[in-house]
Protein: Dihydrofolate reductase family protein
Amino acid sequence: MLTKLYASVSLNGQLLVQEKRLTSPPAALMMDFMQHVHRAGNMIMGRKTALSLIGNAQVLESFSGVHIVVLSNQLPGDHFCAVVRTPEAALRHLKARGFKTAFIAGGADTYNSFLTHDLVDELIVNISPEITTNGIPWVSRPDFSLQFGLEEMKMINASISQLRFRKQRVFIL
Structure:
């Protein structure tokens, strides 16, 4: 199964966390995100990200037809999704349902869980031309190293760059 991680960061490397943003994300960025989600047919997110969806019926409606998996020990309230405890369980869950790609939508703890377990094949990183102190570091766990090679660069709009990286496999002879 191909595992893609999608993140938007500021110039100073902070995750652009929706609930802490002072402005809405650009429409072009949201459209790109939705295209990736619908192409994969699924998305994996953490509990905090999921809780931000639960209270917004309009946002939930935009994910109609998308299989949502939440990485959490518990998810209070209405279960509009599958809830699993580990990144490996999320991937098993999606594979059992016939998905070929797993799309990791956030947040930071979910990113860290997949990265530290070496479960990410592709990174899609959007760079927003802002410097912010109200984001959070998107990789915060120490003592791991992964190598990725740049596959593609493109502009989402006139100011947001998107970089797509593929994991580099290291072969020891």
